[in-house]
Specification:
Layout: E1 8-12, E2 15-19, E3 26-31, E4 43-50, E5 54-61, E6 72-76, H1 85-92, E7 95-97, E8 104-106, E9 116-120, E10 130-131, H2 140-157, E11 166-171, H3 174-199, E12 216-222, H4 228-231, H5 235-239, H6 250-273, H7 276-290, H8 292-295, E13 299-300, E14 303-307, H9 317-326, H10 329-335, H11 346-354, H12 366-371, E15 375-381, H13 389-398, H14 404-409, E16 413-417, E17 422-430, E18 433-438, H15 445-448, H16 450-461
Parallel strand pairs: 6-9, 6-11, 11-12, 12-15, 15-18
Antiparallel strand pairs: 1-2, 2-3, 3-4, 4-5, 5-9, 5-10, 7-8, 13-14, 16-17, 17-18
Helix pairs in contact: 2-3, 6-7
Length: 467
Amino acid sequence: MPVNTQAFSEADGQFTSFRHAAFPDHKIRVKSDVTLCDNTVKQHVGYLDVGTDKHFFFWFFESRDKPDSDPFLLWLNGGPGCSSLTGLFMELGPCRMSENGNGTVHNDHSWNNKANIVFLDQPVDVGFSYGEGNEAVSNTKEAAKDVYAFLQIFLQTFTKYQPADFHVTGESYAGHYIPQIGATIAAGNAKAEQVAHQRGLAQQSLRPEDLVTIHLDSLAIGNGLTDALVQYKYYPDMACDTKYGPVLTNEQCDQMRGKYETCASLVQSCYKWKTPFACVPATMYCNNAMIGPFQQTGRNVYDVRTDCAPGSKLCYPILEDIEAWLNLPAVQSELGVDRAYQGCNFDVNRNFVMQGDWPLPFQQLLVPLLESGVRILIYAGDADYICNWIGNKAWIRALEWSGQDEFENAEDVDWKVGRTGKVGGKVRAHENLTFLQIYEAGHMVPYDQPEAGAEMIETWIQKKNFA
């Protein structure tokens, strides 16, 4: 285990704990003898502990290719309140849940084919993460601080990943998380580089209290909720879109369009004041007006082509299979966990809503990142309703940055997936901003289109062109 001598460790039962002087209230507990899911690669599982009250579970897999030099990815699922292990076992991890739900099968299209990847359950009380006392996190900004502390301790513990390009990836409500995490990393990097400059020392000469520079190369958001003001406007267009057959009638869609002015006024107040008093009413009204009519049909909000599976909490039976498998005593014993796994915690979701976090404007955080050279990929499966591609493309086009006009005038061109030999979508790009519409995929692109999802991420992290 390559450990930085600047980080200090201690035995903690079946875990080894590592701390960082800059974060006296934080430590990570690591267990590295795990062989579940993919026994061909090195794994680390454990917790980020914040004081005695907050405990964030993580699961790390080395790259199947060149772990010493391949990029490093963080993956986050959304909700808010849903476990990133959904991404691991349903979408892009080294294994997937088997059809009968009693084990896992190898995933040939895992994103760790060409990258080291960590799945993090956050905020607390999500997945295997847990809180004690009154330390629940109910807003994106606070959640990002804990993620940044985790990355600092992890990278100063496992030093070989420090030089790697770092990518923050995720989907859905991660359209909130990822811009905030990117901004937090950028601020931390500026602080680290200022200290190093003042001391006239390279990063290799770190003191225990120093921050490591995280080589933030890109953000990649899949079917995200990022700019509610723009995105709410396009729900009627998606509900009556003809590609997969309209779900609602033209009359119903027109009624939804008639409610957008009120929705927009409420969201604009939220954007201005950023308080629960301003933002909670926007969430309640807009969700009822723009999402409610679709939900009443019984169709799957994550895939307009299908109905929700009967009896499934979130339309997909595989989610119950994942919960059942992760709650097996033998699995929990190997992971070193001692609590029930819950795929989505609706109390966490409700807390974020009641804190007014849902309609906040996170697209604004992307502009300074773009201007500093961070690459940003927004991708969207075009069968998703809840965070549909039409709204995602619209907010990207509306984003005010130095390349806005050029991006607006750029062409949409076909993206051919080499793995399948088919056109897998359309891409529009200018400089370091890219939008990718992916055909025949819903909210969870790697689940519906695993070949396209894998090729997309490998093309992106290897800095190749999509077209």
